[in-house]
Amino acid sequence: MGMKRNRRSAVFLDRDGTIAYYREYCCRPEEFRLLPGVGRAIRRLNEAGLAVVVVTNQSAIGRGWLTRQTLAQIHRKMRRALRRAVARVDAIYVCPHPPTEGCLCRKPGIGMLLQASRELGVSLRHSYTVGDRRLDVLTGRTAGTRTVLVRTGHRPEPLNGTAPDCEAATLQKAVTWILKQEASRLGGRGRPLDPSTRTTAFGRGLARDSAPSLGQRPRESRRGTPSESEGRAKRKIPRAPRPAECASRGGLPVGLHQRGRTL
Ligand SMILES: [Mg+2]
Ligand SMILES: [Zn+2]
Predict the structure, then answer these.
(1) 40 Ramachandran zone, left/alpha/beta (phi>0; psi -120 to 50)
(2) Domains recognised in the chain with CATH numbers
(3) Active site residue 132
(4) pLDDT digit string (tens) for 58-117?
(5) Closest ligand to 115 CA?
(6) What pLDDT digit, counting tens, does each position of 119-149 carry?
(7) How remote is the CA of residue 189 from the centroid of ligand 1, in Å?
């Protein structure tokens, strides 16, 4: 396992507001609930061979409101819920520090993404970051990944020039966009991606799939007419091999790292 094997694509998923109902601090397992459709969405990423990596700021630990034991319980609950949908996350990275600590792992710092890239052999350039907040977009962009903003969590924030590559109503729609990008990258169909292209993946099912805290709908919302490239992507989503087990363990220079379990 040389250092040169950074070929896999990963999808870095924010936790609160992206895969689980948004709360400012989730300090008890009872407060944690997956958003609808998330299991299916992650399963599609699993099947496409992308590494699925949760990256989450949990300053409640550093503030003394949440213990690592309780966080582990919350994450066990998350994995159980995903397992029911035959989905799994490959790794979970947590920044436990309060903002005052000035650590490198707290988003929008990219410490967690860099660590995952090293440990899981992931190419950041070919990876994606999905989150419900501007800070997730900023993190993903700084790390060189493509970015998707989902509208299932935090109320809309001014993006101040930090435009995501795609805005999606839900994680499901984000995954559809990601798999389309992967299909054109790996299948050699269509033109190479223009990273400056912004896509809006809103569409049908907005109301049904979304959390009540949704903001206003985007002006460019296209309803019901799947583009021809969408049809293309549906026909041909190449199956990459399943993610290999990551061998290296090593210390934990940043954050807490919970390794993914194989199901
Ligand atoms: Mg969030
Ligand atoms: Zn940190």
Answers:
(1) alpha
(2) 10-258 (3.40.50.1000)
(3) no
(4) 999 999 999 999 999 999 999 999 999 999 999 999 999 999 999 999 999 999 999 999
(5) 2
(6) 999 999 999 999 999 999 999 999 999 999 9
(7) 33
25 Cα: distance to centroid of ligand 1 (angstroms): 10
The pTM of the whole model exceeds 0.90 = no
Say whether 16 is catalytic.
yes
Centroid of ligand 2 to alpha carbon of 67 (angstroms): 15
Compute, in angstroms, the gap from residue 58 CA to the centroid of ligand 2: 9
Cα radius of gyration rounded to whole Å, the chain: 17
Catalytic residue among 16, 90, 132, 165: 16
